[in-house]
Amino acid sequence: MSRWERLRETHTDFGGGRGIYGQEAKTHDRKTGDAAKYVFKRLRKAFPSQQFRHRFKIPKREINQKLRDINPKLGVTQFVSYSSIKPDGGVIEVKDVNGGWRAILVGEAKKQGTNVDRIKEGLGKQAQGNAIERTHKNIAELKNYMIGENYFPYVVFMHGSDLTTETLEVREPNGNIFELHPTSIPDRLTAASYGMPVNVPYCRNIFAEHIDGSKIMLQIASLYMRNDPWTEKEMVDVMIEIAQEALTCLDELNQL
Q1: Dihedral angle over CA of 26, 32, 38, 42, nearest 10
Q2: CB 75, CB 68: distance < 8 Å
Q3: How far apart are CA 33 and CA 109, in angstroms?
Q4: Which residues pair with 151 in a beta bridge?
Q5: Are 97 and 167 within 8 A, CB to CB?
Q6: What is the pTM (predicted TM-score) of this model?
Q7: Is the dihedral of CA 231, 237, 241, 247 positive or negative?
Q8: Which end of the chain is more exposed for a tag (fewer CB within 10 A), N or C?
């Protein structure tokens, strides 16, 4: 039985994660954290011979060390000793054949834009925020952390009226229909995925060739965005697919 089949079978054995769904009062970032915890349990169950860990912080010093491992000129600047990044879903890692920890899933959750609710309440539109743009900081740090890998298991689940990719029809209190059009926010975010389609899981790096024939690897972030919040089931399904592909990449390199 393949790794994917084992993980899928384990996921099904546990009811497809039904036990963690349906709590609408949860904030979106907490849903992401719970979904990641569920995936962590399924990984441990599906692959008992592997060691996994789930942590919710990566110190800046570890990121800098990864950069120095590539080139001693990199990763030499840090102003505050306790600086770190804290993805909402944490970081799930597997121990490789050399005893090192390799990230196989990083999950984030972001919300921006409440204009659908405001219009329904007759409050009118609100200006666009910039909270989502801070997502680029964590993505950049994770790319530094995984600079030596041939995969990039980063996924961010974003929702809110600023993140809609289609025109929404919203009914105002007076009964009129207000058309809420997409904003420019999604276009600012797709820089992290090199303009690849959104709402698609990515993991394995893509090779790009320069005009001189040299090649570089592009780390593609998986960007999920729409107005409505993502359910835990949707998050789990995507996370499992990304974690599986990360394990496959490591297995192909005989690192597991």
Answers
A1: 160
A2: yes
A3: 9
A4: 204
A5: no
A6: 0.88
A7: positive
A8: N
Complete domains list, the chain, with CATH: 3-252 (3.40.580.10)
Catalytically active residues, by annotation: 88, 108, 110
210 sits in the region (left: phi over 0; alpha: psi -120 to 50; else beta) called: beta
- CA–CA gap between residue 105 and residue 237 (Å, rounded): 13
Q: Are 85 and 142 in contact (CB under 8 A)?
A: yes
User: Collapsing DSSP states into helix, strand and coil, what is residue 19?
Assistant: helix
Question: 150 — phi, psi (to 5°)?
Answer: -100, 20
Q: At 227, is the secondary structure helix, strand, or coil?
A: coil
User: Would you state the structure tokens that stand for residue 13, as one six-digit string?
Assistant: 């054995």
- Please, are residues 136 and 118 in contact by the beta-carbon 8 Å criterion? no
pLDDT tens figures, 193-225 = 999 999 999 999 998 888 887 888 899 999 999
Q: Which residues contact 112 (CB under 8 A, 6 or more apart)?
A: 128, 129, 131, 132, 158, 160, 162, 163, 185
**Which amino acid belongs to residue 181?**
H
**What does the DSSP 8-state code read for residue 135?**
H
What does the pLDDT look like over 52-105, one tens digit per residue?
Answer: 999 999 999 999 999 999 999 999 999 999 999 999 999 999 999 999 999 999
